[in-house]
Amino acid sequence: ARVITALRKVPRHLFVDPGIVNRAYDDSALPIGDKQTLSQPYMAARMTEALGLIGDEKVLEVGTGSGYQTALLAELCFNVFSVEKIRALSRKARTLLDGLEYQNIALHVGDGTIGWSEHAPYDAIIVTAGAPSAPKPLLEQLAEGGRLVIPVGDEQAQTLLRVTRTGAAFKEEQLGDCKFVKLFGKYGWRD
Q: Is position 39 annotated as part of the catalytic site?
């Protein structure tokens, strides 16, 4: 119910290019420039729900993109730390998120596959691009009981995984098939 409320509140049409604003609420991924996409609403909701947020969490998002998923997270947790590799996308997202007056978001330009260790540990981590495997630095930055939601697989198709940390152990759950753009970086796909 909290995720549905956030989906209704965040104005998705602000996060798409004006030329395709009429498609903003279609249940499909949309281009946002720089060969990146805005996830379909269903997948954004599915991934967010899988994090199990109750409101007091510190969340790391890998792949700010347009900032849409970032805004959803900001509605549902205490703090969002978001890393984007593409500077132009991060700047655009910052402008949008500031305009919507979110006060609980910090953005960083860098390699998301190494996380953002200065603010770790995180109660939840969401990765919005497909990786060959869960990046080790992200697993290490999970708090006890923390959840990582990430698409993992090859370049053509992935499986959505939820990884939960219990001490030094990590329990994996498969949440279904998906297809995302590639996660580039040291622990993802190489540029």
A: yes
